Structure formats: C-alpha cells, structure tokens
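Notes from the 1:1 (GR / supervisor)

We went over the backlog. Supervisor wanted to see one worked example end to end before approving the batch request, so GR pasted a single chain during the call. The sequence is below; no edits were made to it. Supervisor asked that the structure be written out right there so they could see what the output format looks like.
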Amino acid sequence: AALQESGVDCTFLHFRCIIIVYVLRDVLDCVGYTNVSIIAADGDWSIAAAMLENPCLNDAVEVIGVHYPGTQTVKEALLTEKKLWSSEDYSTFNDDIGAGCWACILNQNYVNGRMTSTISWNLIASYYDNLPFGRDGLMTAEEPWSGHYVVESPIWMTAHTTQFTQPGWFYLQTVGNLTHGGSYVALTDSKGNLTIIIETMTHNHSQCIRPPLPHFDVSPQNATFQLIGYFAHLTDLQVWYSKLDFETKKDTLFQRSSPVNVYNGSFTLKLDVDEVYTITTVKTGQRGSYPEPPKSRRFPKNYSDDFTVDNPPFSEAPYFADQTGVFEYFRNSTDNGPHAFTLRQVVPERPVTWVRDADQTISIIGDYNLNVSCDVLIETPITGGVFVAARVDQGGGSVREAKGVFYWIYANGTYKVTNDIGGQRVLAEGLSGTREGVWYTLTLSVKGYLATGMLNGYPLWKNAVVLEPKNGWAALGTLSFEYAQFDHFEVNAE
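Structure output shown during the call:
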C-alpha cells in the first residue's frame, strides 16, 4: 500500500520478485545447493496466486512466508499445498500484553492460518530504547555497558511450545478454538510423544502491534479433551502452566504443575482467562535458571574510544549503533602514528533500502545532553563532508527526519551547523579551511539553548541557538555514502 501511494508500479515489483526467485533457484542448483529451499516472498499472500498460475514458480518455492498475517491465510495459499510460515511476526512491546500477543499467535497462526512456523521479530531487544520498536523483543538486553538484561514474560510463552516440541514434529489436524474463547493445538513426533498447548488470552491482554485483532470474548470454562488412537492408552500427562495476572500483577510464568490423570483417554481442565497450559508426554521440560543480572545504569557520563583494536572480535565498535551506512574498525596502513587504528564509514554508495533511509550516513551513541569531540578525516575531494552531532532525536526508519545539532566540515573549505540531518535548517555557516586527507579535531558543546563548535581546539563558531530537541544521542557520520575516518572519539555529559 505504501508503495502504491508513492506511485511505484507494484505489478512491476511483483514481476521482478518472480524473476528473482527463478534466477535464485537456478543459481543455487548450479552450484550444488539443491537442498537449500526458497521461502517467498516475505510480504503478503499475493505470491500464492502467482504460484497457482505458474508451475515453474510453484516448483521453485518451498515455503510461502508472510509478515504479520494476523493469524489468517488465504485460500490460494492453501491450494498450493506448500508449507505456510509467518516468517516475521510479533514486533510488540515485551510487557505482559506482548506476552499475551505472542502466546495467542503461536497457537492461532496454525489454528486459523495453518502456518507451521512463527518467527519473532525480534528475539532480543538489544538496541537503544528510544529507537523505533523499542523493547519489541522476547527479552531485553539494551545496556552492554552495564551487562543488565531482563528475561521478559514472552520468553516463557515461547517455552510452552519450544521445550516440548522439536523440528520434525507436526501438527495434528484436531486443533481449534475453545467453546468460550481461546485455542489449542496438538503436535506429535510420530514416535508416541504428544504435546498440547492451550491459551486463553483475552482481547485486551493480547494486542499485537499489527494488525489489530478483531473483537473476541474469552471467559472461564471447563475444557475436556478426548485422546484417540495410540494416545488413548496414556494414563497421565505432564503439565506446565502460566498465568498473566493483570489484576494482582503477580504472574505465574512457566511453572510445573501436578500431572493430569487421563481416564479412558479423557481429561478435563478448569481454565481461567489469560492462561497458557502445556500438556505433554515430554518429561525433559525445565524452567532453567540464570544469574542475577547486573544492575541497570545509564550510559557512562564520560566515555572515549580510540578504536585501537588490532584483531577485533567484531567489526563494529562497542555502543555505536549504525542507522545509515556501516562504520567498522579500520587499520590505517598509511598512518603509523596516532591514527593507525580508526573507525571508518565503508559503504561508498547508497544501497537498496528497506525504508527511506537518510542520504547521509550516521551512527549514534549515548543518551545524555553531551559534549562531543572527535578527530575526523574526509577522504572524498571537493564534495566530501563529515559531522559530529549531539541531541539526535530520531533513528531507524525515521532517521531521515532526525533533528539535533549537526556540526559539519566539508572538503571544499567550509563548515555548517544545522538543526537537522538533511541540512535544511542552518544555524551557522562559514569558512573552515578544511580539505580532504587532513585530520581535524571537531569539538561540539551544547548547553541549554546554546551550541559552540571548535576546530583543532580553536573556536570556529559559537552561541548557535538550539530550541529543540532538548536531548538525544551523540552521533558521527558523513555527508553522503563516502569513505571517511573517525578517531579519538569522546563524549562528556553535563
């Protein structure tokens, strides 16, 4: 819909998708990866109709994958007789309502949509909280400087399924909705094991971020299950239980209960609202344990990094979060002095993007009103430029609208101070004498409504008035997708 609103020919894009699948299948087969399957098309269900019309496309696709299906499928997808996956789902704040969302869709994606896989975006919310989709993971670990993490309630909703099934198990067809609301699914390994997962999440306590759920009612009930065939001979089953208690705020999360007795293949459960049960033959379930996490604390008020890491275990520097472009450790072979090790922006041309990213590259860090200092090296003659920034207020898919205090120098010998990453709102500008291939030290100080900038320790501009934003991240970046280097980065909080 967004593409159509922007005037993009979606029929052409759909045709391109089909061609890409063809080519990808041929390439994989030619290099010997015949056992690698293609999941398509990670959007809506529209590829299903194309697969019914095109046998070659149908043969190339192993799994139809969709994003945020709202537990529903379409008849064309069922007619393909392909595996159906919710290849991206959840994306919801990980409080108890998020846990209710996750418990609900883990069951109902199969009950309503016959989807046999549901993949959470994302697994661990490990990025700055104020970025888009903050805490939209099954657990939270967003303070690498403190080591603090939180095992959120969605983790335990996951365990109700994943601890009692394995890849290769399959859903039984006798699944569905409970009489007074809620759902149940049953899976087996065809070796005598059985796992039943029951959820009774109420509408207001299971709202996913997208799409909105239609209204439904859930009330307390007794539910009787009749086992048939091989399972009719079972005499008892293991029970694991969770209760999201929105009244007392005292949840019960993934606790082992007394086994349920089975009489003549039948057992009855007394179900309340906002509960999850796992009834299973599998006896290996365990809640597990983890050490007490380190205490939460804010980003250090004073932080510096000279990027001197000879053999880094990762290409990214700690605590920086690239929003556009890629910033990596770099061994500067042309400088054996103070800038032998640097951080470098390494993407020289604009990539194909998922959202409308900024035309500039930017990596953010910290969470205070900060004074920022950094050595910078422009590598692109004439048109090149770099910046340091403070109080940056947007990232992710909104980075193009980011405001803050951006202090730019350019290879053409000028500087500019802007209130936005796009450079439209100019606070100060003039001559700087800067050029490519020379290291400069930029220092940006922001206090209250006033900002001041220095170049190599000397004032270049001062008292630029900054009315908003009042806080945000520090950042560094480039004017375009160009090579540039950064060194001796330092932030100091007020």
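Supervisor's comment: The radius of gyration is 28 Å.
Batch request approved.
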